[in-house]
């Protein structure tokens, strides 16, 4: 059974930083490009960034230069370092395969507010 467990969210002021983690089962992690997604209230879920099996990373324009995605094969963990956070980054953040997706986890709430 594939499991995705996101953590690391919270309340942060504009300009602040957070690091999200996603503990994934080996079934999905070791064989797939992995991505971070987000869903703000009343909006569609959108792809934020993804990283290939070989480690090549790609970002949506709205986070480019501020967020960094990485993966650790030893622990099957996906990370998202988020810097220079803006109020518009407020959303529930999820991880999943970037191409072949499994059931969504519970996500982790990120709130950027002063």
Write the layout of secondary structure elements.
Layout: E1 4-7, E2 10-12, E3 18-24, H1 26-29, E4 34-39, E5 46-51, E6 57-59, E7 67-72, E8 77-82, E9 91-97, E10 108-112
Parallel strand pairs: 2-10
Antiparallel strand pairs: 1-3, 3-8, 4-5, 4-9, 5-6, 7-8, 9-10
Structure, described:
This protein is mainly beta. Helices cover 4% and strands 46% of the residues. It has one helix and ten strands. The strands form two sheets. Strands 2-10-9-4-5-6 form a six-stranded mixed β-sheet, with no helix packed on it. The radius of gyration is 13 Å and the shape is globular. The mean pLDDT is 96.
Produce a short descriptive summary.
The protein is mostly beta strands and 114 residues long. 4% of the residues lie in helices and 46% in strands.
Task: Pick out its properties.
single chain; 114 residues; mainly beta; six-stranded mixed beta sheet; four-stranded antiparallel beta sheet; 1 helix; 10 strands; 46% strand
Name the helicity range.
under 10%
Instruction: Give the topology string: H per helix, E per strand.
Output: EEEHEEEEEEE
Count of discrete alpha- or pi-helical segments spanning 4 or more residues: 1
- Strand percentage lies at over 45%
């Amino acid at each position: 059974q594939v499991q995705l467990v996101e953590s690391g969210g919270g309340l942060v002021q504009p300009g602040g930083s957070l690091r999200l983690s996603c503990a994934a089962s080996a079934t999905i992690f070791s064989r797939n490009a992995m991505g971070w997604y987000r869903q703000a209230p009343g909006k569609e879920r959108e792809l934020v960034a993804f990283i290939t099996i070989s480690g090549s990373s790609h970002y949506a324009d709205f986070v480019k230069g501020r967020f960094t995605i990485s993966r650790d094969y030893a622990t099957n963990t996906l990370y998202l370092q988020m810097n220079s956070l803006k109020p518009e980054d407020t959303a529930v953040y999820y991880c999943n395969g970037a191409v072949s997706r499994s059931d969504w986890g519970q996500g982790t709430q990120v709130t950027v507010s002063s």
